[in-house]
């Protein structure tokens, strides 16, 4: 079976891609040595006092190392085509897995110059100072942010409690007003209801003053009326004649 040139080239490209996928560009961290460039890991942040000293389309780890050694810096940091120098490593809390530093250096693809998604940095010790330490200022900033988040949460809880208490007081005030109104209505009803006098009626104990006596003048008055009547006189005279 004949193999064309294009087919052979495709096989070479696929094989190279498989080899690159298996090889990690970022070497594991090593113990620093005097006047030797040694990898120290992959970090997600820069030290607070890091300075960019060079930007080159042909950036390599060796080129960045030479720039930082010239300025007597202890740490060399690479990200893409950028070279940074610093006196300390980035914050220890920003250390990430070496696999994230997967961007080849522009000047030498077999070396890692950080990463782009997310942005990470390849960090090296220049051999000037073996134990430069980690950036403490950045760690303190992270602690301050955590403290600020905790403090800002507290007033929200207090505000919520305050609203609940205000609602409770308003309800009690309403109940008190209702009780007062009911008491006033009761007093008004009591005042408008007629009250029966508890004083016993006075009875006149003198029967002579209240009981009519037999009048002796009643019969004579009736007789006097009959005698004074002319018809009665005539009848009386006729009876006498008979």
Automatic annotation (TrEMBL):
SMART domains: WSC
Domain WSC: 36-127
Chain intervals for the UniProt region annotation (Disordered): 127-232
Signal sequence, start to end: 1-21
Pfam families, A to Z: WSC (PF01822)
Keywords of this entry: Signal
Compositional bias of kind Polar residues: 146-156, 221-231
Compositionally biased residues, Low complexity: 157-181, 207-220
Keyword Signal found: yes
Coiled coil: none
Name the UniProt record assigns to this protein: WSC domain-containing protein
Species this chain originates from: Fusarium longipes
